[in-house]
Structures are given as C-alpha cells and as structure tokens.
Amino acid sequence: MKKEHQALQLHDFLPYKINILSKRISHSLSLIYTTEFGITIPEFRILVWLNSHPNIYAKDLCRFTLMDKTQVSRVIHSLEKRSLLQRQADANDQRSYQLFLTPQGEALIQEIIPKAIEWEENLLTSLSSRQYMNLQNALEKLEAQLQALEAKQ
Questions:
Q1: CB of 46 within 8 A of CB of 65?
Q2: What is the pLDDT of residues 70-103, one digit of tens each?
Q3: Which residue from 23, 49, 139 is spatially nearest to 57, judged by alpha carbons?
Q4: Bridge partner list, 85
Q5: Using CB atoms within 10 A of its CB, is residue 42 exposed (0-12), middle (13-18) or buried (19+)?
Q6: Where are the domains of the chain?
Q7: Residue 129 burial by Cβ neighbours in a 10 Å radius (0-12, 13-18, 19+)
Q8: Which distant-in-sequence residues (6+ apart) come within 8 Å of 41 by Cβ?
Q9: What pTM was estimated for this model as a whole?
C-alpha cells in the first residue's frame, strides 16, 4: 500500500515563522547601530552582554549568544582593536581572559541602548499590554518545552 504524501506549508510552520520573524527583526534593528555606529549584529550582541555582565569569559558569550567560538573570537578581536573591549588574564588560568567594556565601549553602548529600546517600543505598538504579556508567556513556555525536548535527545 502506498503511503500518503504529507505536505508541509512553511508559512504555517511555527519554527519557520519564528526564524523568519527573528531574522527580519534582527536586520531591521541592526540598521540603527550599523548605520549610525558601524557596529555589526554580532558586535552589538557582545557589547550588550558585556554591558550587563562585565568580566565574563568568551566561552560564556558563546553560550549566551549561541555564536560559535570562532565568531566570538573574531568579534572580540574586532572590538578590542577599536578599543571598545579589553581582556584581562584570569589569575587562576592564564589561558582564559575575562572580558569587559572599556570606557569607550560603555559610552557607545549607552548611546545605542536608548535607540534600541525606542525601536522595540515602536515595534510593540501593534500589541496591547495583554497581548504583549501573552506573547512573553508563550515564548517562556516554548523555551521550557524546547529545553525538555533537548534533554531527551
């Protein structure tokens, strides 16, 4: 007996929709800091993490940003060349470096953050407060379910 062919409509497939929306949001937001400040998307992510979590390690940035080690290393090097980030050798492990923003890096990210927040607020004007809270709750539930599924693999 012939198995019935199953079709997948990508425009209705949640992983696809979330991925496309994520890419569009990231690109649109990046126009602010790329055009005005010459910062790439990966650089923005690293700067934001270092702003809120000073003195972390490159391996932590890989985990937090889901960027691979090579990409994080390139971004660190680029930001360091532009005097936006500094490395400090770990006293317990000379192969590891703690990373932190320089005063120039702090000043830059403090210029970008209000613009990013304003951009986000403009994006969210299409949602009521309740819709926003429902979206946040749904995303948290999906993230928890994804962690549970990954733990089984």
A1: yes
A2: 999 999 999 999 999 999 988 887 778 999 999 9
A3: 49
A4: 101
A5: middle
A6: 12-113
A7: exposed
A8: 26, 27, 30, 34
A9: 0.86
What backbone torsions phi and psi does residue 101 show, to the nearest 5 degrees?
Answer: -75, 145
Residue 56 has pLDDT above 80, yes or no: yes
What are the tokens at 112?
Answer: 């970008």
Q: In three state form, how does the secondary structure of the chain look?
A: CCCCCCCCCHHHCHHHHHHHHHHHHHHHHHHHHHHHHCCCHHHHHHHHHHHHCCCEEHHHHHHHHCCCHHHHHHHHHHHHHCCCEEEEECCCCCCCEEEEECHHHHHHHHHHHHHHHHHHHHHHCCCCHHHHHHHHHHHHHHHHHHHHHHHHC
Confidence of residue 1 (pLDDT cuts 50, 70, 90): low
**CATH: 3.90.1150.10, 1.10.10.10, 2.40.50.140, 3.40.50.2300. Which one for 12-113?**
1.10.10.10
Q: How far is CA 97 from the centre of its chain?
A: 21
